[in-house]
Fold:
Amino acid sequence: MLTLCASCNAADFGTEIAATCAACHGTDGRSRGAIPVLAGRDRGELVRLMREFRDGRRSSTVMREIARGYIDAEIEAAAAYFAAQKAP
Structure:
């Protein structure tokens, strides 16, 4: 997992964290098929959903295990990045 660094600005940090989601959710959060699109979604909703996955309050087959590896700052950075992307 990526770590926080003093030389990273918020936008770069969000981009780096979000890149780890691309394999399933597509480049810039524009997935195709059954995987949910993240681009253009509400930042607060994305934060809430990721925390629910991470904390075991939302059921899933894969996302709980993935989300467990993220701290709040990483979740918030990725959510801000995806919320800023244009929805497909």
Remarks:
- The chain is about 50% helix and 0% strand.
- The mean pLDDT is 90.
- Residues 10-84 form a domain with the Cytochrome Bc1 Complex; Chain D, domain 2 fold (CATH 1.10.760.10).
- The helical segments are 10-19, 22-25, 43-54, 63-67, 72-84.
